[in-house]
Amino acid sequence: MQKIVLICVCALFCMSVYAQQEEQFIKKDTTQLDEVILIGQRKLSNYRQEKTLSSIDDYLEKSNKITMLKRGNYAWEATLNNMTSERLNVAIDGMQIFGACTDKMDPVTSYVDVSNLEKVTVNSGQQGAENGHSIGGAIDMQQPSSKFYGTGLNMNIDMGYETNGNYRTTGLDLEYSGDKFYSNTDGIFRKSDNYKAGNQTEVFHSQFQKYNLSLQGGYKLSDRHILETNIIYDKATNIGYPALPMDVSLAEALISSITYRYKGHHSLLQSWESKIYFNTITHIMDDSQRDDVAIRMDMPGWSDTYGGYSKAALHKGKHKLLVNLNSFYNRSIAEMTMHPNDPNQPDMFMYTWPDIRTFYSGVYIKDEYAINAFEKVSGALRLGYHNNTIAKQTGLESLQIFHPKITDSKNRLLMSFSAGYKLNKDGYDALFAFGYGERAPSVSEGYGFFLFNSFDNYDYIGNPNLKKEKNLEFHVNSNVHFDNLKIGLESSCFYMSDYIIGNTDPSINSMTIGADGARVYKAIDCATILDVYFNASYTFNKKFAINSSVGYNYGEGKNGMKLPLIRPFSYLAELNYNTHMFNAALQFEGNANQSRYSSFYGEDETPAYGTLNLNLGNMLYVKSNKVVLKYGIENLLDATYSTYADWNNIARQGRNFYMNVSFVMR
Asked: How many H helices and E strands in the chain?
């Protein structure tokens, strides 16, 4: 522990001269870390060239602090600051939404598409507490803002093809924009066969098919009052998960909301936004396409969430104040039915999530005070009430086998706060921040019943008696500019108490055939995670630029226990060429070998790797219409590799040629 504290202190001291602003708009620029990732679908960008039809997972993976945990070719799980979804707040336009899969095969990000979104805001630690409590930070996927352009009817057509996996994508976007009314309808279809790893090795059960439809409309009640509605319908079928023992026959979501917006006309109330929303998810796991299964299983899950928020931005003198009142109610239920191969044996049924009802209501307040033109200080506070209730009596009785004294309801009061100092002058900028946060256990951590984890080969059982997980964090950024050279350095240190993780219980027999045993979630005394990133970019002229990034991460629990899924040393270097009508990027990225791995939680030493990518783009005009062409080669050298974030060392894609075309008609 002393070693970790010493590293944190050294990192804070070394970077105490400069740091970057808390939130910046970027075009995949590795020199900026707290990000608003722009989803520029039909544009040519200068940095880290994107396929026009990249999935939202691809966009998120370009962020320094986000790594996508892969169980297959679809529905990757975002990790932020080396923390998985339990410790993050992942929202869509501030709406809370929760997956319906006990194995986390349907993260929130899997139910939207880039066609639905305008940008993604990534905030670290307690800087991401606006929409809810978290430890590691927040990811808010934001839909397009009001479109009262008065430009009439517009249409966009997108098509894409990739050789690896015979991956096909088609999209259509219809938009009408008037002075008082606008509407937008977009749909996208994605389908992939099994992909191939390096040396043309087929990865079986990696296929998927996905439809996504979005409807958005708005009416301007007056110059300052707007009413909007949004509906997203997403349906994925025939999804293979090569790293898991089961596949998914259906992952379906309906996400809807109604929003009222007010733009202030005086100095005090700048804006006011209120939203009510509802989303429902159905997720069905099955192993009907797998051979030689010891026992057939059907595992459906459902998650319904009702909620709303009302937030206002105020400006008085040197103060900028944000107030957000939000609340949600979620119902999560999951079942498992086991069908023995012997027809004379009866089916076996149990609830893996015994109809857990979660109610939350809270308030977030942030004040930013401008000391002068160069310096600002800020403080934020979130207070919330959290309740879990077990609605199924059979589920309660099942959990009482292991936790005899539990009741059907558990209340928690949650708190988080943060404070920061920002300095922004010519040639450098700075951010110093600290915070404290709490979170309640997730549904699986608190109430899961014999959830099989194929990563460490153990069944997991929830613990309703878990304490709140608590975190104290320190965060510093630094950016300095020397003419054409930009250098950035960032470090975050998280010290968590009552850290929730599974612990082996030898008195409990596993239920899954072939499992090594059973683990029950418990809270260990402490854990520490340290992240350090260094970024640099150099602009040779208006056309040529080079940028690079290296990162170091460290995670340790009590008594030197290695935490799982901690990213090893990582690096990226890229050369960019850009003109108005053409751009290109050559990228080299990779990780060092993962020498600090947690064998107790199923990890092994992942070898070092490096991949080379080439991305190109052209833009053409035909009268008033535009054609955007993006093409390139991913994993140019056809490397065979897997990373620490690939579940059970599943191999990543080998060489892939792709081409995307967008027709923008005005």
From this structure: 4, 34
